[in-house]
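Study the following:
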Amino acid sequence: MKTLRREFPTTARVLSATAGTVEFVASDETLDCYQEIVRASGWRFTHFKKNAPFVDSHDYSTIEKLLGQVADWRIEGRQLIETVRYDLTPGSLGLKAFKLVRDGFLKAVSVGFVPTRTVSKFDGAEFNLVLADLALSPANAAAVRVVYLEQEQIELSQCVIGANPNALARAYKAGCLNDEDIDQLSAQIEVSKQNARPAAVSVDAGAATPRTKLALLAAIHALR
């Protein structure tokens, strides 16, 4: 089965600014925009634990996209919680990402995984038992299409999905981003909107549509 990528409502807690460690709620049992739910008890780490990569936007085609490593993971209740250690080497992409997270400009992470056991509305009684255990509202229960019961994590990614112009404008004003970063982030946000894989699209200045970049520039100008 192919690797799936899902972004969940994320909270980030900096554990150590010196060591560059941040704790994320990487996954929970929220009904997502695909009308799917990922069970927390179903997370498996057989392959992930060998390296536990933390990468930029699901792009693990080159070591230049490696932001650091997932140092620890655990299940608490209905949540997958993971601790990330960023690469803080001067000039590295990991250091830039850490500063954006530390200062509250970037929060989104996304889990890449391969589902190994699922249940859907076509499975009748088993599906109904799973829904009952999830204790969903009637509206959400009616909307569920698939529940992932077991899934192998492949990687964890930092993403700009969900980033808004005001947050990025504040990051620019604070000195966390430069003009080249604005070009790159504009392109990545546009790719996200098109539901494409960022790694497959060039992120030079020409890749961003005028609308996306202009929104960022307008937000930056408004803060001056």
About this structure: The helical segments are 93-102, 125-134, 138-143, 165-173, 179-193, 210-223. Residues 70 and 140 are 32 Å apart (CA to CA). Residues 195-208 have pLDDT under 50 and may be disordered.
